[in-house]
UniProtKB/TrEMBL annotation, chains A, B:
It comes from Siminovitchia thermophila. The keyword rRNA processing does not apply. It comes from the Bacteria. Pathway: Amino-acid biosynthesis; L-isoleucine biosynthesis; L-isoleucine from 2-oxobutanoate: step 4/4; Amino-acid biosynthesis; L-valine biosynthesis; L-valine from pyruvate: step 4/4; Amino-acid biosynthesis; L-leucine biosynthesis; L-leucine from 3-methyl-2-oxobutanoate: step 4/4. Its cofactor is pyridoxal 5'-phosphate. One of its GO terms (molecular function) is branched-chain-amino-acid transaminase activity. This is Branched-chain-amino-acid aminotransferase. It catalyses: L-isoleucine + 2-oxoglutarate = (S)-3-methyl-2-oxopentanoate + L-glutamate; L-valine + 2-oxoglutarate = 3-methyl-2-oxobutanoate + L-glutamate; L-leucine + 2-oxoglutarate = 4-methyl-2-oxopentanoate + L-glutamate. Belongs to the class-IV pyridoxal-phosphate-dependent aminotransferase family. Its EC number is 2.6.1.42. Keywords: Amino-acid biosynthesis, Aminotransferase, Branched-chain amino acid biosynthesis, Pyridoxal phosphate, Transferase. NCBIfam families: ilvE_II, PRK13357.1.
Amino acid sequence: MKSNQITVEISDNRKEKPAFSSLQFGKTFTDHMFVMDYTEDQGWHHPRIVPYQPITLDPAATIFHYGQTVFEGLKAYLSENEEVFLFRPEENIKRLNRSCERLCIPQVDEEIALEALQKLVDIDREWIPNVEGMALYIRPFIISTEPNLDVTPSKSYTFMIILSPVGAFYKEGINPVKIAVEQEYVRAVRGGTGNAKTAGNYAGAMLAQKQSGKSGYSQVLWLDGKENKYIEEVGSMNVFFKINGEVVTPELSGSILEGITRKSVIELLKHWNVPVSERKISIDDIYDAYKNGQLEEAFGTGTAAVISPIGELFWKSEKLIINDGKTGELAKKIYDALTGIQTGKVEDPFGWRVTVQ
Amino acid sequence: MKSNQITVEISDNRKEKPAFSSLQFGKTFTDHMFVMDYTEDQGWHHPRIVPYQPITLDPAATIFHYGQTVFEGLKAYLSENEEVFLFRPEENIKRLNRSCERLCIPQVDEEIALEALQKLVDIDREWIPNVEGMALYIRPFIISTEPNLDVTPSKSYTFMIILSPVGAFYKEGINPVKIAVEQEYVRAVRGGTGNAKTAGNYAGAMLAQKQSGKSGYSQVLWLDGKENKYIEEVGSMNVFFKINGEVVTPELSGSILEGITRKSVIELLKHWNVPVSERKISIDDIYDAYKNGQLEEAFGTGTAAVISPIGELFWKSEKLIINDGKTGELAKKIYDALTGIQTGKVEDPFGWRVTVQ
């Protein structure tokens, strides 16, 4: 399939753009979307950009019953010169295909997917907020569509990309968040789907999140499902700690999402010659470092928030206040570097930035 | 809300009924479906039976991204006197509501849900196959519908019930199936969603199932996610073993589905004064019992298959042939008793059968 086969139908009924600065995350969508179908006979076919519109499915479509679905999240940024940049989009498409493998979904052609991303963002480029800290969130996703109540991989799928202008993921912005260590619920376990970006991981996480929210915590810190002691992720982000000058993050164990921001932070720290290591980290390690005065910083990393400093960790009825509850120096430096590269404000020695032509 | 508020719109375009005896599981649907909506303002409202028709949703509806959904499965049976029976439907609705709680979905009114089940089955009663071993499969399910990419419980939902005439769940029918003990993948772990009937559990299970299928096994036997040694379920069924005269099944650990057939089998065995116990069972216990000649029978239990005898267990490159690969005497007796009660052929001392009026 050649990428120039993507057909385009421009909407003749453009929506009015909202005041970007007042947007809530993920509730406003642009004028167009990308769609591509899969059937056993034809494979992936009919790639097209069409006006943003509802999906119509049989009530027996397997997505509604057995949740065979994967998704991605990335952003398009507007530079001061009105250029449009993506950040390592090929990494998202590769991860989408790894998720597909775990969920028994046929993989998509990387070239077509990247072309679709760029073409769609280009068509809706006026929706990219020209406001500091804002961006156009890009959501590629695949759903299973066959009407079939047998628990077996679907024979048909739809791949879509939708776009949403967004501000900061957390109401707090780059300000530190308060996190509760989760002791009852588990996000994922080795052998499960924790390293795939798939709906079930997020559905299962909502109850813990809701309960921690009631106690005033933004997110939970997930521990592993086997021993309930090793740190995995924070909310829907990867997590880093700075302990006595060294930056550590949980190793990819099979149950942790392979974050692209995570990977970029590690590469950035290595580039800066800051000691960084991926290893098993227990909650006791963190507690001990805190008690010894060596827990210097903690932060989450993810596409939505980029860097989210952690000002407080709640663990066994004790509040661990990190860096006086303030944004750490390193977290801020990483945030500035990443958002600088993403928006074209600083040099990109890594070749991470992709210009949408 | 009064149950007589369920409105009914009869289809004026009835489908032609297929030859029931040739049906595949879950691919054919009846003329009508039940629908009820939830919004924050109105709660659950507008219960209605309408012609079977597609669902139309925004592509940003959270069901497509974060999989907030629960479902149930039960059957309607036609007796020789053309009466229509349900089997313990109130247990399904209670479990639906327990699943809702885990998935942060607002619970439904049990009375309305039961009324809806009965009314819908009654309207489409001509779709219940009058063929031995066949039934009308009933699929209640709830999906989250709010267009919102923020990972947070949806503010709107749709509850639906659809119906599908079905034959045996396994091609093999009541004949024994071959099962492979799964050593790489994990279905669920304590603290996760394993005891809720929700899409993500099933999506995550497909890869192991697909791989075991390639080796000629119908389903996998799941081990626990923590120690990878305790038996949990078989495929999408609960599992029982008869060892030296005693029937054992894994205890409800939090990661195992609380099967209604499981519960009924336990109650039936107690009624018969057959020793039965719910406890932790390791795969080594089963292997030892096999080697000692004490593993007399093994079978899965679930709504779809009722009882599914296990003729072979594949474990660490060894084939454990159970009861000479034949259906066990007890499995057959339980199958006959349950299907007898379900179809009205035998007395129902438990009050499990509900007549659709």
